[in-house]
Amino acid sequence: MTETTLLVSKIKDGTVIDHITGGHALDVVKILGITGKTNGIVLIAMHVPSKQLGLKDIVKVEGRELDQEEVDKIALLAPGASINIVRNYQVIDKKRVKLPSLILGIVKCGNPACISNSNEPVQPIFYVEQEEPLRLSCHYCGHIMEKKDVLQQF
Amino acid sequence: MTETTLLVSKIKDGTVIDHITGGHALDVVKILGITGKTNGIVLIAMHVPSKQLGLKDIVKVEGRELDQEEVDKIALLAPGASINIVRNYQVIDKKRVKLPSLILGIVKCGNPACISNSNEPVQPIFYVEQEEPLRLSCHYCGHIMEKKDVLQQF
What we know:
2 copies of one chain form a homodimer.
Chain A: H1 2-8, E1 14-21, H2 25-31, E2 42-50, E3 54-62, H3 68-77, E4 82-87, E5 90-96, E6 102-104, E7 125-130, E8 135-138, E9 144-146, H4 147-153
Antiparallel strand pairs in A: 1-3, 1-4, 2-3, 4-5, 6-7, 7-8, 8-9
């Protein structure tokens, strides 16, 4: 069947994001800015069985590699994800995302009164209190951000 | 490779929407209300080569069949799409979507002054002037709706 062949076709150059927490593939797609207008093959699998995770999602993106901010954002949603760089059909690099203990800059505090939301030049800083389910606490005001709060910003 | 095997795995029961106009897979996913919280395997392929369409998208959804309103909405975005019903790993029915000449009810007129947007009990009616790129004209006020206008409503 043609469609089966197409779905299985390997990516020549690009990135495979594997072991995404089940249900977060479309969030990863959003983080990567993938829309219908993006070029290149994109393959997305949602809710496939995984020994490690129960259910996992996979996103394969042809023709691009991820920058650090994209990887950090993925780590917030899917701390078990692995990023595989593919060149000429071969996986040349494979690494797990890693959630740092401090989140700098990529998440804004949900407390409007927080000094990081004022006009002061204050970079948002969060402590990772818990990875899964995600729980971040603001360095300045102690406000707690959960995964759904973070997702709204991506 | 495990991930390859998983991507190619057939759907036991569900629907394969094939020959979606390239770039519209995520719109189809939205029409079907698929989010991370939906159950069942979902496979999405974007921008894969197609003899007929140049580039096409494919969406496979396990565990559900589509209702007529969903099929009609898909026809507006991707008039070349085919809907394959799968039961017990076999395609038991395959049909092309068909854009009717009159669109009843599923698109609202973008002209706020149109009588179909008043409090009167007037069902929106559009004539399909052109399938691709989509061009609908309102029966009541002649307002033209293009694909992007329709997409905003889905």
